[in-house]
Write a structure and sequence with these properties.
The protein is mostly helical and about 200 residues long. It contains ten helices and no strands. InterPro entries: Homeodomain-like_sf (IPR009057), HTH-type_TetR-like_transc_reg (IPR050109), HTH_TetR (IPR001647). GO terms for molecular function: DNA-binding transcription factor activity; transcription cis-regulatory region binding.
């Protein structure tokens, strides 16, 4: 008879979810420097060794929290393959893709923006934190490249593809959203700004 490890897998997933939830709360409340593995472990009801074993330390824990925030869950499905990205993939005009992409960026910003504001406010204080920001910047560049490459193939770009990619990469930076948030902008404001800016500067 084959061994049924479904209960064990479910328990492991529940432990992971508890640790990630506790870590997210800790990062938002105490910041990166003020968050400790021990405090996260206590809040999640596990040992510090369990957290280290699963996430490899505070920087790894932060990356896992960020990934779940961006995706909306912990399922191993790339963001670009999720249903919420469908409107961007199926847009048939530049107006449609500008609206769909702005709505999608607003969704991701709403999920991960609060965490990234905390992270960016502490940038330059810890090498691991700076490495995390560079990783996130690199992932955003990959996403911007995928988007603008597709738009170029459809003849939708206003200018040079490389410059268009870089413009998009900057426009959707969490640092840009953090500046808007400081000025009291809402996510609705951000979505409207991004849609109009895409139309005026990147999309033909």
């Amino acid at each position: 008879m084959a061994y049924d490890n479904r209960s064990r897998a479910a328990a492991a997933q529940a432990t992971r979810a508890a640790v990630l939830a506790a870590a997210r709360d800790a990062f938002l409340d105490a910041g990166y420097a003020g968050t400790t593995i021990r405090a996260v472990a206590e809040a999640a009801g596990v040992s510090p060794e369990t957290v280290y074993k699963r996430f490899g330390g505070k920087a790894g824990l932060l990356k896992a929290v960020y990934d779940v925030a961006m995706a909306g869950d912990d399922d191993p499905v790339p963001i670009a393959e999720r249903p919420e990205f469908l409107a961007v993939r199926t847009a048939s005009t530049t107006a449609e893709v500008a609206a769909a992409y702005a709505a999608y960026a607003r969704l991701l910003t709403g999920r991960a923006g609060p965490l990234m504001r905390v992270v960016l406010s502490a940038r330059g204080t810890d090498p691991d934190l700076d490495a995390f920001v560079r990783t996130v910047d690199g992932e955003r560049l990959i996403g911007a490249t995928m988007a603008t490459t597709g738009w170029a193939e459809k003849g939708w770009l206003r200018g040079d593809p490389d410059r268009s990619r870089d413009h998009l990469w900057m426009l959707i930076s969490p640092a840009v959203w953090a500046l808007f948030a400081e000025r009291g902008w809402t996510l609705d404001d951000y979505e409207t700004w991004l849609r109009t800016t895409l139309t005026a500067t990147i999309l033909a």
